[in-house]
């Protein structure tokens, strides 16, 4: 399965680079975009990662507390995550990508995969049957995103990526634009344009009010297990509410 990847200029490359550019041979009818945290999975993967890293002694209590605070504020739509994401990526400058990738692989298998929402598969298959392109749109890393996309047989994934130098080590820089807020819309528009699709004809599933820019950009927004603010807004605007259940 061929998936999209953004490349960088200069000597650095992005991590887990996929073939690119976006395949444009066949125009899709439209695109169904899916958020990850608390949408396709029932928990926030960043919070689970922080807990794992803290338990392993790889982050300090203060670092963990700061990270949890950012995640909570982001999920409530009360904070931008651009600078926290960039600071987090700068902190791994010089680390070997292979080591991080192995840790994330183990994390995904043990912690993330078991909490995929059971009701998501039927919705994904309905979009597939309609001939729509299936795309993960998430602020998570490309490592987790790649595994989710493989397991759910999605066509592409748009996510946050990290530059890696010629020696396979992180440069400490993100691949821009960040996949957050307006950046999600920019990445989605780039993909849609390459496929000859208008975002107004696309669907987007998410749980969070922080994704309001993308919800406003598409023609078929759906609130999945929404947070209180998104639930209230969805009811005001007549957007569908979805319950995909919890993993048992």
Stretches where pLDDT falls below 50 for ≥5 residues? 1-26
> Helix/strand/pairing class, anyone?
alpha/beta
The residue-averaged pLDDT reads 83
Computed CA radius of gyration, to the nearest angstrom: 17 Å
CATH C-level name: Alpha Beta
Number of domains: 1
Query: Can you write the helix and strand succession as a string?
Result: EEHHHHHHEHEEEHEHEHE
Terminal residue distance: 29 Å
Largest sheet: 6 strands, parallel
Please, how many helices? 10
Q: Can you identify the CATH superfamily?
A: HAD superfamily/HAD-like
Q: Tell me what the CATH architecture is.
A: 3-Layer(aba) Sandwich
**What coarse outline follows from CA principal-axis ratios?**
globular
Strand content is 15-25%
Give the strand tally.
Answer: 9
- Roughly how much helix do the residues carry, as a percent range? 40-55%
* CATH fold-level name: Rossmann fold
Largest sheet, order of strands side by side? 4-3-2-7-8-9
């Amino acid at each position: 399965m061929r998936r999209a990847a953004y490349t960088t200029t200069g000597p650095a490359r992005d991590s887990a680079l996929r073939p690119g550019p976006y395949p444009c041979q066949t125009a899709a009818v439209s695109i169904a975009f899916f958020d990850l945290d608390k949408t396709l999975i029932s928990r926030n993967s960043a919070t689970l990662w922080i807990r794992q890293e803290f338990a392993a002694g790889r982050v300090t209590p203060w670092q963990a507390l700061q990270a949890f605070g950012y995640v909570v504020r982001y999920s409530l739509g009360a904070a931008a995550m651009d600078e926290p994401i960039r600071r987090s990526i700068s902190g791994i400058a010089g680390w070997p990508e292979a080591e991080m990738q192995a840790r994330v692989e183990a994390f995904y298998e043990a912690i993330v995969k078991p909490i995929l929402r059971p009701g998501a598969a039927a919705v994904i298959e309905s979009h597939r049957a309609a001939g729509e392109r299936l795309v993960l749109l998430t602020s998570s890393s490309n490592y987790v995103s790649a595994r989710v996309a493989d397991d759910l047989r999605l066509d592409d994934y748009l996510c946050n990526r990290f530059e890696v130098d010629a020696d396979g080590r992180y440069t400490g820089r993100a691949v821009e634009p960040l996949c957050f807020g307006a950046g999600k819309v920019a990445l989605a528009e780039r993909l849609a344009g390459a496929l000859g699709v208008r975002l107004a004809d696309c669907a987007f599933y998410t749980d969070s009010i922080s994704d309001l820019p993308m919800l406003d950009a598409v023609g078929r927004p759906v609130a999945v297990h929404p947070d209180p603010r998104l639930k209230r807004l969805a009811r005001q605007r007549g957007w569908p509410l979805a319950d995909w259940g919890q993993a048992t």
